[in-house]
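Hi all, long-time lurker, first post. I run a small reading group and we've been trying to get comfortable going from sequence to structure in the token notation. Rather than ask abstract questions, I figured I'd post a concrete chain and ask someone more experienced to write out its structure so we can walk through it together at our next meeting. Sequence below, copied exactly:
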Amino acid sequence: MQLFTLGMNHQSAPLAIRERVTFHTERLQSALSELTHREPVGEAAILSTCNRTELYCALGEPQAALQWLASYHRVRPQELEPYVYTLPQGEAVRHAFRVASGLDSMVVGEPQILGQMKEAARAAESAGTLGTLLSKLFQRSFAVAKEVRSNTGIGANVVSMAAAAVKLAERIFPSLAEQKVLLIGAGEMIELCATHFAAKRPRTMAVANRTLERAEILARRFNAKSFELRDLPEHLAEYDIVVSCTASSLPIIGKGTVESTIRARRHRPMFMVDLAVPRDIEPEVAGMDDVFLYTIDDLAATVREGMDARQSAVAQAEAIIESQVGSFLHWMKTRERVPLIRQLRDSAEEARRLEVERAVRMLARGDDPKTVMDALSHSLTNKLLHAPTQALNQGDEGDESFKALVARLYHLRARD
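-- Answer (accepted) --
Happy to help. Here is the structure in token form:
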């Protein structure tokens, strides 16, 4: 198989499965190197977000990629198979275009996925696993996404995950202006959440991060406090709303910590949103009294609200994507012919070179130039037409398709 995509997303797999196959940014390049060296995969890129993990591969076999994915994350392939989709060639191209354009996202039209795809392409390029085919696929995906955003209303009034978190918080608390908000992490998602919550003018905002410097940079933009993640247990009880999205491979807030926090708050309700994959907050916290814990999957119903207004834009976007899929597949087909074209040209060039050398020798011994040029042209013409002429002479009487092909190649018209 020349090109395929293998993966799982929020539609095919629950969070509990998706978080088991997440790739962390700092290990992405080494994972790509391992995939292309251990398995028969010529090119590879990995897109790993909170909603999806996908392998984009060229010159490989899907089953080998699945075995590697399971092995890398120490999961049995049988556990992943019910949730994994494998998309061959044309479907893989269409899928990449839809993902980049935001049509396959939990929030249709959200722009964040485009930046994540660009990061995936950069990581593959740095790892040396982004070859001609995948490089072209990603570049065309970015161009399609730009066209979709420029020519449709797909990005208008997008309900982001951050906006959904605010909407849920407003259902819990009568007024966010009276609440204290804690944001854990300092990445793009937390930055978006900070923007949305700040617009509601909460009583206090704070940013906690493993690196204090990054927390301070984000906090200054929103006139918020900042502290290191290791100090979280002593500060957690101060906040009514907690939104977490870090790259930690293990939960950073356990059930015991939350139990202590709720006691310290004298059982005042606490609203928590875990946007991380793998999860930052232990799932058992959801069963506690006085705690309202929502994960990315829980936000799905909220972010779907109001989607109907964008369906006409989605239809327009799908039409743009469909035309671009055909264009890309045509490019792939022409690319497959390149070796044959190169071989044909090399053969003609070799014939030309030999005849020119022969003509030069004739001129050197004093032969008439007109005679030499005439001999050169006749000999070269005979060599270039020998193969098609021989094939026509050896063909069957009824081989009309081959005759039509030769006529088409040489722009010949049938004679009466």
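A couple of things your group might point at:
The longest helix spans residues 311-364.
Residues 348-407 form one domain.
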